[in-house]
Amino acid sequence: MSEPTCAEQLDEARRWWTTSIVDIHPGEIAMRGYPIEQLIGNVTFPEMIWLMLTGELPSRPKAQLLEAALVASVDHGPQAPSIAIARMAATCGPGLNGSMASAINVLDDVHGGAGQQCMEILYQVDAEAGPDGDLDEAARTVVARQRAEGLKYFPGFGHRFHPVDPRAPRLLGLVDAAAERGETSGRFAHLGRALEAAISAGRSRPVPMNIDGATAVIYCELGLPAPLGRGVFILSRSVGILAHAWEQTCQGGRIKGPQAKFLNYTYDGPARRDVPDVADRG
Amino acid sequence: MSEPTCAEQLDEARRWWTTSIVDIHPGEIAMRGYPIEQLIGNVTFPEMIWLMLTGELPSRPKAQLLEAALVASVDHGPQAPSIAIARMAATCGPGLNGSMASAINVLDDVHGGAGQQCMEILYQVDAEAGPDGDLDEAARTVVARQRAEGLKYFPGFGHRFHPVDPRAPRLLGLVDAAAERGETSGRFAHLGRALEAAISAGRSRPVPMNIDGATAVIYCELGLPAPLGRGVFILSRSVGILAHAWEQTCQGGRIKGPQAKFLNYTYDGPARRDVPDVADRG
Amino acid sequence: MSEPTCAEQLDEARRWWTTSIVDIHPGEIAMRGYPIEQLIGNVTFPEMIWLMLTGELPSRPKAQLLEAALVASVDHGPQAPSIAIARMAATCGPGLNGSMASAINVLDDVHGGAGQQCMEILYQVDAEAGPDGDLDEAARTVVARQRAEGLKYFPGFGHRFHPVDPRAPRLLGLVDAAAERGETSGRFAHLGRALEAAISAGRSRPVPMNIDGATAVIYCELGLPAPLGRGVFILSRSVGILAHAWEQTCQGGRIKGPQAKFLNYTYDGPARRDVPDVADRG
Amino acid sequence: MSEPTCAEQLDEARRWWTTSIVDIHPGEIAMRGYPIEQLIGNVTFPEMIWLMLTGELPSRPKAQLLEAALVASVDHGPQAPSIAIARMAATCGPGLNGSMASAINVLDDVHGGAGQQCMEILYQVDAEAGPDGDLDEAARTVVARQRAEGLKYFPGFGHRFHPVDPRAPRLLGLVDAAAERGETSGRFAHLGRALEAAISAGRSRPVPMNIDGATAVIYCELGLPAPLGRGVFILSRSVGILAHAWEQTCQGGRIKGPQAKFLNYTYDGPARRDVPDVADRG
Q1: What is the rounded average pLDDT of the residues A87-101?
Q2: Which residues pair with D18 in a beta bridge?
Q3: Sign of the dihedral through C-alpha D7, D12, D13, D14
Q4: 3-state class of C271 per DSSP?
Q5: Which residues is C35 bridged to in the sheet?
Q6: A210 Cβ neighbours under 8 A, 6+ residues apart
Q7: CB-neighbour burial class of residue D253 (10 A; exposed 0-12, middle 13-18, buried 19+)
Q8: Helices H / strands E in chain D, number of each
Q9: What angle do CA A37, A40, A41 make, to 5 degrees?
Q10: Angle A60-72/A226-251 helices, nearest 10 degrees?
Q11: B7 vs B44, which has greater pLDDT?
């Protein structure tokens, strides 16, 4: 093999990294082909997230389902390791970026992977049913198969703390309404409920869908690959991580040790109140 | 000092961590007092970000300015260390969470702090002018003082690559329009332009406001504390970091070394295209 | 179930975390039962690493094998993503801790896991042979089985860059010498060479053991669990990561983009020289 | 400016990154000029750390002081945020690398910077005294100056938990012994004690040197730049971080929340025992 020429070396080096996400020239920035100045002010942040991750802009109704899921997952309190880490880190000296990095890092298979794993099962049921199959039967088949393979807890169903996770029925209601308006198929909402029924069958208590299950239904309705389910969850939970890191920064404290899970923490924020209409905000 | 009683010990431990962000009871989740099921579907993701960070819901027009800033900052290509790190990490084995953490971690003072630093200067000019002072004169005073203290490059102004950063005038135009409608004061847009003029005075070429300056104007219009300017920037840039980590994951590669800054990368995405109207999307 | 008493709650909370590593009281610190002031000055750093990870102090000859492995793995140049990330991070603003964290984070299965994976295979061959079996035959059996299961590249063998990795024969020679002196069994050195022969059989070129294979042999000789093989590797590579982060910090640079793998980097350090005798150092 | 030629572009790209740490060619690896196969088995791990960080091999006595400091700092229990984070992370899914990264990341100015800050003050006292000045007077001058500038707690002195930190006198004793043998100057041990006296003067209780102060004395004796004081501390504490992450991994647990600082943890390891002579180990 002869030595490559200078031009060949340069060319090979230039092809080392390739992206279809962003293209930049002096005075020009385009994302997935769209000039950034057209995107700014014309697409919502969830639409931009979708464009960046999938390459195309979603319909507005689909973007609103994504938005509901992003809103739903921002935080579940400082007893979660990710939030606890963010707060402790904020008392150790790194900036908000460092506190966020240490926290986001632990949103791995166990602490941040339930939504992704639930999506994988939903896609399995979808494939099991095929275009014309019975969805409920497919759910029962997949549940039986997974149990035979040793799965004990189905990701996306049941909650150690909430008898019913208040986020799940609300999200599912939004999917139903969108399906009624023809904005989404509703197939995965059906599949999710079929899974819930199949998992709960024969138990004294039902095992209701939780936030991970309900967001998985939405991400599957939208056609997102399962690993991106975790990615989008991280974008959402980052908001809570940042809020807690910042609150702890404002509270001060140096090298602040952890709080016991058993002892809970103290809430000193506003009392319960209703979300005002848009016209009454701000 | 007598030994605290058991109840006192428990009580002290419970007060160790205090938050006004989130309150959770079985079947109940409230953020800043608002039940989560009311927030889902009724507030946008940028509004939720605002609520989590500041404690209150913004007006919709203010939320739309925040949204424009979030959309504008998602990515500036794989030559930025944060994006390069995300892509390399994705070939080393950690999940998307790990790739995101390694990348977000470097959005520190130098690589991610320009917006925050520009906000600090904008707030200095604001204070210098006081309620009735001349904004342009205040900008000149602050620029002169900062230069006397050794500042050479004003964060938020000038760009090594773009003669004019296409994101900045677009964002500033949105602030102007909102100010005309009385939705925001417009004071910081004025201050930002005054800073641009003061910095550029006497130079052969103007030093135009860049993305960090324009988002700083928006975050100051909204009254965000300067450190949260970096926090919100990280929420935005996380989208690009995730998109590149995922693209690299799909491309494959193992232990993939870096690309040279000098050689650029190859873009193989869609050609330039216009952002369609909402009715024509999806 | 009756509500636990205050004392029960306190007690349960106290048991939430349990460790056998460290015990601390005012004026007293003990690691694995040994007072820290007895350890300081009496055990080497590799012996301390061993004590912390396994609970007991090693013999000095075994500690010296560990030490050789720790010395061998510190660095393999800035084209490795971990080192490249450390250098880039150092130009972005986080301290040395942040640069190290972003880099260490990517030492996952792909970039940092070969030693651990090689240990797993060595332990498989060890189990296959049993106490009296033929080691070479066991190696051939495991290689054939792994290939049948789809393994193409055996972790710990072969190198894309080095025809012979200069670290491997040196480390193996130290194991041989220790085995001759009866300080270690030498069984895993035999198994490692048997694997090398089985992997190379029928190929035009041998597939020689690399650094990951040679350190895996040492860690197996010492009886380390396979996941700790990666842990100890990280302790070693952290030294190179810190050295490069610090060198880059001293060189300066802001938001410094990556270097192309194809183009290599420039070495401007001392010319080749021999390691002086201890008496001639410092 | 004319377009650079292909060769110029290649050349510029090759110079983009420069290192004097490591030089690699097929079959050859040299660290600071020394062939790796000569270093393996001939230098200790602390000597290798020194070589990588400073460019030269230390004398053995100096390396032993470094070794004592590395041994001393490995762990101070799971109530420290770094160790707490490592344990929590280990229950969330990332590998040992991810748990270590999240933990190391928080060893910033506040949680990991006291040694570095103490070194800076020691170097100030050193400069204040000059070659012939009175060391005790210089210490008093610097303490008074620092207090006038607002410093309340001197990094490296005093401990919230230990009346006397058992690691500090032991380390200082090793420096004294080395100084008596002429292996190190002992100047910074003197300066450290002078600082202790100056800080304690006029107080009802002395403010004794702690582990950060004692290791700072050693690192200054060795001539390490202050920022590397933190770097070397991280290399040491990484051992404890790894040990705790691994212990928690073996204990199991999923998404395990934090332990309360007030409640302490349970120690279930070996009872107090003496470090055996080398001949009786292993």
Answers
A1: 92
A2: C266
A3: positive
A4: coil
A5: C30
A6: A156, A157, A158, A159, A162, A165, A167, A168
A7: middle
A8: 13, 5
A9: 125
A10: 50
A11: B44
Which uninterrupted H or E stretch holds B35? strand B34-35
Taking only Cα atoms into account, the Rg of chain C, rounded to an integer number of angstroms, comes to 22
User: Rounded CA gap, D73 and D241, in Å?
Assistant: 11
Is residue B81 within 8 Å of residue C88, measured between CB atoms? yes
Both tokens assigned to A282: 């701000």
Report the greatest alpha carbon distance in chain D: 75
H or E element, residue B81: helix B81-89
Show Cβ contacts of residue D3 under 8 Å, excluding neighbours closer than 6 positions.
none
D34 strand-pairing partners = D31
- Listed by number, the residues of chain A in 63-102 with a beta carbon closer than 8 Å to a beta carbon of chain D are 79-82, 84-85, 88-89, 91-94, 98-99, 101-102
Return the structure tokens found at C112. Answer: 């940092």
Look at residue D263 and tell me whether its pLDDT is greater than 80: no
Q: For residue A174, how many other CB atoms are within 10 A of its CB?
A: 23
Q: What digits encode the pLDDT tens for the residues A47-66?
A: 999 999 999 999 999 999 99
Q: Residue B218's closest CA among B108, B74, B122?
A: B122
Q: How confident is the model at residue A258 (pLDDT cuts 50, 70, 90)?
A: low
Cα D76 to chain centroid, rounded:
13
Q: d(Cα D94, Cα C227) in Å, to the nearest integer?
A: 12
Tokens encoding B196: 């641009």
CA end-to-end span of chain D, whole Å?
A: 69
Which chain C residues in 164-193 lie under 8 Å from chain D, judged by CB atoms? 164-167, 169-171, 174
Is any Cβ of chain C less than 8 angstroms from the Cβ of D9?
A: no
List pLDDT tens digits, range D135-154.
999 999 999 999 999 999 99
Specify the amino acid at residue D171: L
Cβ of residue B205 closer than 8 Å to a chain C Cβ: no
Determine the 3-state secondary structure of D62 from DSSP. helix
Which one of D31, D36, D244 would you mutate to disrupt binding with C, by most C Cβ within 10 Å of its Cβ?
D36
Contact B270 A244 (CB under 8 A): no
CB D211 within 8 A of CB D166: no
Whether A167 contacts B24, CB under 8 Å: no
What b/e readout covers B206-236, taking b as 16+ CB neighbours within 10 angstroms? ebbbbbbbbbbbbbbbbebbbbbbbbbbbbb
> Chain-centre distance of CA A281, in angstroms?
27
Alpha helices in A73-182 (DSSP H): 81-89, 96-104, 109-112, 114-129, 135-148, 167-180
For B11, other C-beta atoms within 10 Å of its C-beta total 14
Residue contact A272–B35, C-beta within 8 A: yes
**Is residue A207 within a helix (H) or strand (E), and if so which, with residue range?**
none
- Dist CA D166 CA D147 (whole Å): 27
Question: How many helices and strands (H and E) does chain C possess?
Answer: 13, 5
ipTM: 0.95
